[in-house]
Amino acid sequence: MKKFLAVLLGVFFVASFAFAQDVDLEQLKKQIADLQAQVDQMSKFVNQNTRHTATDKLSISAEFMTRLDSIQYKDVRAMPDMMEAMMGDFLQEKLTDSNGYFMTTYRTVFTPDLLLEMAQNDAEMYKAFSNVVAYYNSEYGAGIDPSDGLDTTEFQTFMGLFANDRTLNADEAKLMERMLANSKPKKYDANNDYMLTERLRLRLKSKINEHVSFTGRLVMYKTFGDSTPIHFFNGTMSSMFMDSNSAQYPTDDSVRVERAYFVYKNSIGDVHWHFSFGRRPAAYGYGMENHENAVLGGSPVASIIQMNFDGGSLGFNLEDVTGIPGFNIKFCYGEGVEGQYGTLNSLNSQADVNDVHFFGVIAKLFDNDEYKVVYNYAHGFGLTDGFIGLTVMPFYIHGYDKDRDGIYDEYTFEPNFGGFVSRVEPTSEVGNIDLHTLMVEGITYDFSWFASYSMSKTDPTGRSKNPMYQFMGMDEMMDGTGHMIWVGVMTPELPYTGGKLGFEYNHGSKYWQPFMNTWDAQKLATRGDVYEVYYHQPIVGNKFFLTTGFIYYDYEYTNSGNYLGEPVKISEATAFNTMMPVVDKVEQFYLKATYRF
Predict the structure, then answer these.
(1) Which residues make beta-bridge pairs with 69?
(2) Where would one find coiled-coil regions in this protein (predicted)?
(3) CA dihedral in degrees (232, 237, 240, 241; nearest 10)?
(4) pTM to 2 decimal places
(5) Quick one: which of 337, 342, 376, 373 has its CA closest to 355?
(6) What CA–CA distances, in Å, run from 179 to 115, 174, 384?
(7) How far is CA 401 from the centre of its chain?
(8) Longest C-alpha distance within the chain, in Å?
(9) Which of 47, 13, 11 has its CA nearest to residue 33?
(10) How far is CA 66 from CA 233, 298, 591, in A?
(11) Collapsing DSSP states into helix, strand and coil, what is residue 142?
């Protein structure tokens, strides 16, 4: 281009000399100076465009993974068949016949003697039972007397009045709760022997100059033979389609934005700083490198946070100031729930749900490329009784608070036989949470290893207004301090095969509560013990490789990953604790092929 401009200048110069002989020397000098200025301007323009083309374009890389899982659930706890059948008939209003009598189908397994035995051995149940009887006697004059042992006729009358519709008053609800609490759950095994999934990740990068860059990641995570992101609710957050787990659990073939953020970098003397805003790289952080067989870019330490959220960060690299290799500190912000826009609380002057905000600090205390020490702290303000999402509820519970004290006085059950999708959103704030973790990573004799200790502390401040949570006794945030250890090691390349063998173990205590909303990280929310072994076999280096693995879960307490409700030892769980199935042990085999290009 410069040669072309020089020739063009020469042509203009010759033409000017040939056809303007009468122009004096000063005029010629002025014309030459003007032309030179034009050439310089054009040259600058060309250089800017060349640099723009080379550095300001969008680069794309990708990863495609196909995975086969075989999952065996052992000793699953759930309501006994008799009570499950009764619940089904109750929802269909078929527990009583046309005469109002309690269905005789259940008399052989649910007898007056059984009911009285339950009541007489449980003070709360006896109180609720007596209140219900007194209510019926005052309303219907049934003349039921529990002290006489309840003959069959009185029992039929009582149960007929108790089960004649799908609405329970407070005492009836209490009685049902105590009946379930005095019943042992059934135990059974469940299997998903063959589950295929596929995941496509498209990484987007753009760099305008040394100060400004953009990073994004689009993800499709699909289950073979599935075409909807909406699942039936099974009592866990993972069964809801939410902002925090979008693209992190296998669903349909939609491509979703998992990450999208800009970074601005600059320096003040020896202090290098950066500022970033957008959809955060908040999953697959420190600790997941061995498992994923990759260098990862997630910011939070993987032991406490692996979930999508939107927010920002302000970081400072202090290595040159302190002389400590890799020393930097980053302040983070994220929003978990938008409490007004598009919600039931929109334009509500007495809204009980505000935005949920998270603040955190990530401090890399040391990093010399061989060893790393990272500390991560996070605080959640005003956590709500759930997040905004979509799911299919097996049934609905509506509540009526007569005296407006925040506790429902009546519950009405509504079946969802049509499998209709529900929008679920928080009803109230329930508390705050603090999370701490310290992660150490290293490479010793070519063995890649890590170890972390984490702690969570919940601070309940409110009560859920969700009728289902109140009925199931899960309307308050648990109050306790939880702990988790997580360790892992992976071998160097093995002789002959070139593969790498890895092992991981994690243990969570009764009140352990992180935020884990990814398929590969759900084990880290376990209140109990998890063992995992995996093997990476390269086919074409790290561009195409196979991974096979086995995970063994041994849950000790209920409600892993959920801060609502008091955790109960699985060995002591009752039918009331298992209205939604509770898993005791899980064996998971997997095989996956990963292609990176």
Answers:
(1) 195, 590
(2) 18-45
(3) -150
(4) 0.85
(5) 337
(6) 8, 9, 30
(7) 32
(8) 134
(9) 13
(10) 26, 22, 8
(11) coil
Say how far apart CA 238 and CA 149 lie, in whole Å.
Answer: 47
Q: How far apart are CA 251 and CA 220, in angstroms?
A: 9
Q: Helices 112-120 and 170-181 meet at what angle, rounded to 10?
A: 90
Residue type, 592: K
Per-residue tokens: 270: 């020896």
CA–CA dist 449, 490 (Å, integer): 6
Kindly give, in sequence order, each residue whose CB lies less than 8 Å from that of residue 390, ignoring residues fewer than 6 positions away.
229, 230, 240, 241, 242, 421, 422, 423, 424
H or E segment at 214? strand 212-223
Residues 6+ apart with CB under 8 A from 470: 399, 407, 408, 463, 464
Nearest to 524 by CA among 477, 482, 474, 478: 482
Tokens 């030179």 sit on residue:
36
CA distances to 236, 283, 309, 468 from 245, rounded to whole Å, are: 12, 10, 9, 23
Residue 325 amino acid letter: P
User: How many CB atoms sit inside 10 A of residue 581's CB?
Assistant: 16
Reading the block at residue 253, the tokens are: 């073939």
Contact yes or no for 427/352 (Cβ under 8 A): yes
Write out the DSSP string of 279-340.
E---SS-BT-HHHHTS-----SBTTTEE---EEEEEEEE-HHHH--TT-EEEEEEEEEE-SS
- Give CA–CA dist 491/501, Å, rounded: 5
Tens of pLDDT, residue by residue, the chain (597 residues) = 443 334 333 433 333 444 444 446 667 667 777 777 776 776 665 555 555 554 457 899 999 999 999 999 999 999 888 778 778 888 887 777 666 666 655 655 566 677 777 777 778 777 777 887 787 777 666 677 777 766 767 777 777 777 778 888 888 888 888 888 888 899 999 999 999 999 999 999 999 999 999 999 999 999 999 888 898 888 787 888 998 888 899 999 999 999 999 999 999 999 999 999 999 999 999 999 999 999 877 789 999 999 999 999 999 999 999 999 999 999 999 998 887 787 776 666 555 788 899 999 999 999 999 999 999 999 999 999 988 999 999 889 999 998 888 899 999 999 998 899 999 889 899 999 999 999 999 999 999 999 999 999 999 999 999 999 999 999 999 999 999 999 999 999 999 999 999 999 999 999 999 999 998 889 999 999 999 999 999 999 999 999 999 999 999 999 999 999 999 999 999 999 999 899 999 999 999 999 998
CB 551 within 8 A of CB 530: yes
Domains of the chain with bracketed CATH: 61-78+188-596 (2.40.160.10), 81-184 (no CATH)
Q: How far is residue 597's CA from residue 592's CA, in Å, rounded to a whole number?
A: 17
* 3-state SS assignment for residue 581: coil
